[in-house]
Amino acid sequence: MNLAWVYLLIAGFFEAAWAIGLKYTQGFTRLWPSVFTVIAMGISLYFLGMALKNLPVGTAYAVWTGIGAFATAILGIILFGESVHFARIFFLFLLLVAIIGLKFTAK
Q: What is the rounded distance in angstroms from the CA atom of residue 65 to the CA atom of residue 86?
C-alpha cells in the first residue's frame, strides 16, 4: 500500500477522534477533552497534508471526510447509544463502499 494512503487512513481516524472529542469538550469548557480535541485536529490535518503530496486533492479530501464520518457514526453508536436501524447501517455500508471505490480509482 502506498504510504500516502496510510497517511490518509491515519488522518481519517484522527478526524473521527476530534469529532468525538468535541462531544466531550462541552463547548470547549472542559480543559483536557479540549486539549485532546485540538491535538487530534492538528494530527489529522498534518497527515492529510502529507497524503496530499501524492494523492489528488478531491479524492484525498473525500476519503478523509468519509473515513471520519464513518468512524464517527460507528463510535456514536458505541459510545453514546445513538440509534441503530437498518437504513443507517445500510448507508454507512454504502459510505464504506464509496471510500474503498475512491481508493481503487485514484490515479
A: 22
pLDDT at 67: 97
**For residue 59, which of 96, 102, 18, 104 has the smallest C-alpha distance?**
102
User: What CA–CA distance (Å, rounded) separates 98 from 36?
Assistant: 29
Overall domain count for the chain: 1
pTM across the whole model: 0.91
Task: Give the pLDDT of residue 106.
Answer: 82
Residues of the chain with pLDDT under 50: none
Secondary structure letter of residue 26 according to DSSP: T
Residue located via cell numbers 459510505 = 95
Are 70 and 30 within 8 A, CB to CB? no
Domain limits at 74? Answer: 3-105
Specify the 3-state DSSP secondary structure of 53.
coil
